[in-house]
Design goal:
- A hairpin with a 5-residue loop joins strand 9 and strand 10 (127-135).
- Helix 1 (2-25) runs antiparallel to helix 2.
- This protein has 141 residues and is of the alpha+beta class.
- The strands form 3 sheets. The chain has a 4-stranded mixed β-sheet.
- The protein is built from 3 helices and 10 strands; from the N terminus they run ααβαβββββββββ.
Amino acid sequence: MRKIRGSIARGGVAASVTGVFVLGAGSLGLAGCSPAGSSGDSSALPPVIVELDTVDGTTVEVPEGGAVDLTGDDETTTEWTAEISDPEVVEFVPGRDDGSAQFNPGLTAKSVGDTEVTLENGETGDTLTFTVEVVPKTTGY
């Protein structure tokens, strides 16, 4: 959740810098402010980073269209599977190893709502259960 707030703060700083630039550019710059704000809406959101060893029993908040990166397992990253109670809210993305890099498992936030997620590691036998709350994407920063 800290990552979301940090990204909003960075977005606010960018908007402030843009605002200062627009004020200095005069009234023509004000007309250009609207497209700059809308292009920020289409940019990729930073992932919410969640440690596998601390997620059990917690609630993870992620903006709609965002992603959750499940980190902390360098040994069996491809062995995690997920059972999602409401697959309309989030989708599981399995970890993978393409031979040159390892990619963590994760979740993609599809629609606003909340769902329970149970992760299981077929190799270690670990089971983790947590809630994912997908919130509306913040716009206008």
